[in-house]
Amino acid sequence: MDILHVSAECYPVAKAGGLGDVVGALPKYMNELGHTARVVMPMYRTKFLYANEWEVVHKGNTNMASWWFEFTIIKEKTNKLGFELYLVDVNGLLDREKVYGYSDDTERFTAFQICVLDWLNAWAQKPDVLHVHDHQAALIPFMVKNCPKYRPLSRIPTVLTIHNAQYQGWMPWNRSVLIPQWDMWKWGMLDWNNTINPLASGIKCADKVTTVSPNYLQELKWMSNGLEALFEYEKGKCVGILNGIDDKVWDPQTDEYLQHHFSIDDVEAGKAKSKMLLCDQFGLDFDKPLIGFIGRLVGEKGADVLPRAIGDSFYFIGRRMDFLVLGSGFPEVEAGLAALKPLSQYDYNVYIGYNEALSHLMYAGLDFLLMPSRVEPCGLNQMYAMRYGTVPMVRRTGGLRDTVIDYGDPGGYGICYNHTSVPDITHAVWRAAELYRDKEKMHVIRQNMMKLDFSWETSVKHYIDIYQSL
Ligand code: ADP
User: Fold this and answer.
1) How many Cα neighbours within 13 Å face the side chain of 212?
2) Spatial separation of the C-alpha atoms in residues 250 and 399, rounded to whole Å
3) What is the pTM of this model?
């Protein structure tokens, strides 16, 4: 089959979170199964852009409301990512340093989608499926069905994958002119609560909707930032498919970010070497269990409770463990974490910022990875952690519930708790410290986790089944 993925992120070109990881891996595995999957995304000013060679494959003129502009589609020459990668260049609009966070993001991503469809209009052989990801590409199912300009595309089936339903791309109705002329009586397909809601529109108009874990799909029916009734109504076309991880990038035996590689046979020694590097770099005590957090410092991830949970852990359990935090996000959370530093010596440190290399070293060197998420559509960190023999400490939610079994339950290996609260996290920390004392049990758990299969092969087959059903 011939599949075109449309997304705002794709690793390693540009990544702000899990969306990038998934779109960077899924097409590669589809191609390995003999399909042709391509990716199109905006052209940002990223390192990847300057480090690679590109050829121009299309030039066009189009408009968004009364603004006429030129756009160019460029293709990476060597297919080094394992799939054809296309970037949409709109001068001054898409070619920014960051992926998100600009006041004109609505215009940026609407223009991106218009360019993609204009370009597709010119394809002689159309793709079999349009697979769009998150709200930045979620107007496409509406546009192909309801904009006369895109009538040549109207028979291509569309699939929308929701990586995170918290962000919906809302725009007020006075922006409806940004969408190329559309059949006015279909306004209900754009509207949700008196605003244009691209994610809601995608759910209504796409032929199939997928979420990145089965449990997240269930949760969306009672907690999805206002779309609960819509998920209930459209449940017939929704499917939850657990993400895989790119086990070629995330492999402790070959990880290019690691100095010391290891496998299931020498996991203890291998992890100890990476832990030593972390302890040296961050002034931590090697002998204590090392508990880490990696991620965006936002409420969704439960990062706001971290400062108190760490403080309370030291107070109630004693200084029996080290904590290391890597992330950036809300300034208050960053300040709260930084404020803990002077109170701790040799058992706590924080790195504020985004650092891919450090994240790999942490997955390898940590003993435990803390994930007190309030919302976790799938969660990749826990899967990376387990692949590197690091025990996940997760709140039972979304994909975390689908992937981690508490070590107290039959066949279990992780530490699970029910609430994003200081007492629950502190209790989990205590359980981690106790587990760490039992070296033999820890070793068995590490080995069991490393044997788990979170590869993409299984998930990709589910997606292909969905395409074929359409
Ligand atoms: P989300 O997409 O909600 O942020 P995911 O668990 O799906 O969460 O994906 C997070 C990805 O981003 C993981 O690959 C994680 O390692 C990475 N990541 C998050 N924050 C940082 C950071 N500060 N430095 C390096 N990598 C990070």
Assistant:
1) 27
2) 19
3) 0.89
Nearest CA to ligand 1 atom 20: 295
Residue 17 has pLDDT above 90, yes or no: no
- For the Cβ of 379 lying below 6 angstroms from any atom of ligand 1, the answer is yes
pLDDT tens digit sequence for 110-133: 999 999 999 999 999 999 999 999
Closest CA relative to residue 83, chosen from 180, 11, 183:
11
Q: What is the secondary structure of 388-443 as a DSSP string?
A: TT-EEEEES-HHHHHH--BTTSTT--BEEES-SSHHHHHHHHHHHHHHHH-HHHHH
Mean local confidence (pLDDT), 427-436: 98
pLDDT of residue 388: 98
Q: From atom 24 of ligand 1, which residue's Cα is the shortest distance away?
A: 354
Q: Is 270 in the pocket of ligand 1 (CB under 6 A)?
A: no
The confidence score (pLDDT) of residue 345 equals: 82
- When pLDDT is cut at 50, 70 and 90, the band that residue 349 belongs to is very high
Cross-strand partners of 291: 323, 368
Verify whether ligand 1 is closer than 6 Å to residue 149 (CB atom): no
User: 432: which residues sit within 8 A by CB, 6+ positions away?
Assistant: 289, 291, 321, 367, 368, 391, 393, 415
CA–centroid distance, residue 401 to ligand 1 (Å)? 18
Q: Are 303 and 335 in contact (CB under 8 A)?
A: no
| Eight-state DSSP code of residue 304 | G
Given its phi and psi angles, is residue 209 left (phi above 0), alpha (psi -120 to 50 degrees) or beta?
A: beta
pLDDT exceeds cutoff 90 at 182: yes
Q: Please give the average per-residue pLDDT across 360-367, as a whole number.
A: 98
Instruction: Write the DSSP string, 358-373.
Output: HHHHHHHH-SEEEE--
Please state the atom number of ligand 1 nearest to the C-alpha of residue 17.
2
